[in-house]
């Protein structure tokens, strides 16, 4: 079930909120758990069994880790953590990477792994990381083991962020699972945040996405240099507003239920270096890899060679986390190379350079990265990159470019403006009463426009569902 559908907005969400606020507080987690399981079952049917299995395994492992630590059995606690990690990674490997590895081996004549045609469960990359971090946090003493399997199940299946994040660590949400405040102000803030995300998704991401689809599927012989860049620019906006829109909706839904999730994006396209970009983009993922992979590997408190190896592993993992395809691994290692160049040569110079220089530099390499990310077929990707850089005799521009540019200029301009904090700054400068009236009017208008779009529109993908 997708957030940006009438079924979710006017049936599932409305009914869930109604029941949630009608029942006594002690039953609210039951409501969330039942609603979340139904939400997942709606899209995955039998794969909801994986949710039960994952919940049971990590719940029991958390208790086992805590029991071993109380008995000063550190070896037993470590084995329990290792067992939890192996289970979660095996689950992720089987469903997400088995067919990719089998097909890759068969392409070079190794046929010992059959291609099974496995369907990828929605959101498996997100919820396996969340449950895996739970036992690690219990071992580290950053969180207490959850005694109630109902409450733990609520954490695992929490529908606002179940299928596309942000990745929530138990240590950040555990206390809220047990007890949280549901206030009118928090609910109103949640509605406002949800509508911002819905507008990002429906009004910007969907529209620029149609431009990217036109160029992504266009014959390479028909592409022009400027057209290829225009297509990637459209995808650059689509993936940001699609994913950040979903994250905003998740944060908003969480607030409606009394939860407070950490933000997942912080205007990444205003960055002046690749290093800064990754402090602003998909914050929950980069934080997860830093805490549960980079630092355990040794972080930067080691030799320079080992430090570079640690970063290499992290960025390779970041790439393949996004999908079972070679382009995602290349994408991750592409950023590893850029970050190495910055750390050894460029970062100090970028800090001293005019802001515009750093911004142009960053966006150039980010645009190239989204071309790598957005095209999974290797031959198609190579051909598209050649056209972008004027190789192979592609023309600079043609009439098709002019048509697309003029047609999509308003939405591209809106996307560019909305990628900056300018609108938020202007809103927060309003007097309190004016801000309240403006916010309420914007929510009502946004709901009407988005509803009209949902009724009339047919193009409504969510890019991060497949990750």
UniProtKB/TrEMBL annotation:
Coiled-coil annotation reads: none
Question: One GO molecular function term?
Answer: acyltransferase activity
The UniProt entry's GO CC annotations, sorted and at most eight, read: plasma membrane
List residues traversing the bilayer: 6-23, 30-57, 77-98, 110-129, 149-168, 220-241, 356-375, 401-422, 434-455
The record lists the lineage as: Bacteria, Bacillati, Bacillota, Clostridia, Eubacteriales
**Alphabetical UniProt keywords:** Acyltransferase, Cell membrane, Membrane, Transferase, Transmembrane, Transmembrane helix
Database matches in PANTHER family: ACYLTRANSFERASE, PROTEIN-CYSTEINE N-PALMITOYLTRANSFERASE RASP
Q: Which family does it belong to?
A: Belongs to the membrane-bound acyltransferase family.
Q: Do the record's keywords include Signal?
A: no
The topology of this chain with respect to the membrane is: Multi-pass membrane protein
Q: Which GO annotations describe the biological process of this protein?
A: alginic acid biosynthetic process
Q: Which Pfam families match?
A: MBOAT
Does the record bear Transmembrane helix in its keywords?
Answer: yes
Protein name as it appears in the record: MBOAT family protein
Where does the record place it? Answer: Cell membrane
């Amino acid at each position: 079930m997708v957030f940006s559908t009438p079924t979710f907005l006017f049936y599932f969400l409305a009914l869930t909120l109604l029941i949630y606020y009608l029942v006594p507080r002690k039953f609210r987690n039951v409501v969330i758990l039942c609603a979340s399981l139904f939400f997942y079952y709606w899209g995955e049917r039998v794969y909801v069994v994986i949710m039960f299995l994952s919940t049971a395994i990590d719940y029991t492992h958390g208790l086992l880790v805590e029991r071993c630590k109380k008995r000063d059995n550190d070896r037993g606690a470590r084995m329990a953590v290792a067992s939890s990690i192996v289970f979660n990674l095996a689950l992720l490997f089987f469903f997400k990477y088995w067919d990719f590895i089998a097909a890759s081996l068969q392409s070079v004549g190794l046929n010992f792994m059959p291609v099974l045609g496995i369907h990828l469960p929605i959101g498996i990359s997100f919820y396996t990381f969340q449950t895996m971090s739970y036992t690690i946090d219990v071992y580290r003493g950053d969180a207490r083991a959850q005694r109630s399997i109902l409450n733990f199940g609520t954490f695992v299946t929490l529908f606002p962020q179940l299928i596309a994040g942000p990745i929530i660590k138990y240590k950040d949400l555990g206390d809220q699972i047990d007890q949280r405040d549901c206030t009118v102000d928090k609910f109103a803030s949640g509605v406002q945040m949800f509508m911002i995300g819905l507008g990002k998704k429906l009004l910007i991401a969907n529209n620029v996405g149609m431009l990217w689809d036109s160029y992504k599927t266009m014959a390479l012989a028909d592409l022009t240099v400027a057209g290829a860049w225009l297509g990637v620019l459209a995808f650059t906006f689509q993936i940001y507003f699609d994913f950040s829109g979903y994250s905003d909706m998740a944060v908003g839904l969480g607030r409606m239920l009394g939860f407070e999730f950490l933000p997942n994006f912080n205007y990444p396209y205003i960055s002046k270096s690749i290093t800064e970009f990754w402090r602003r983009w998909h914050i929950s993922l980069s934080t997860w890899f830093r805490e549960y992979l980079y630092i355990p590997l040794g972080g930067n408190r080691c030799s320079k060679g080992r430090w570079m190896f640690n970063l290499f592993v992290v960025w390779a993992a970041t790439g393949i986390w996004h999908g079972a395809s070679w382009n995602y691994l290349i994408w991750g290692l592409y950023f590893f190379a850029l970050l190495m160049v910055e750390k050894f040569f460029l970062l100090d110079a970028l800090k001293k350079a005019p802001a515009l220089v750093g911004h142009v530099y960053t966006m150039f390499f980010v645009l190239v990265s989204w071309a790598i990310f957005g095209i999974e077929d290797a031959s198609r990707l190579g051909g598209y990159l050649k056209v972008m850089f004027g190789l192979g005799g592609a023309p600079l521009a043609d009439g098709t470019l002019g048509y697309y540019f003029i047609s999509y200029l308003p939405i591209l301009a809106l996307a560019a403006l909305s990628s900056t904090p300018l609108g938020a700054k202007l809103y927060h400068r309003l007097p309190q009463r004016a801000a309240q009236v403006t916010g309420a009017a914007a929510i009502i208008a946004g709901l009407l426009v988005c509803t009209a779009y949902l009724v009339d529109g047919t193009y409504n993908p969510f890019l991060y569902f497949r990750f």
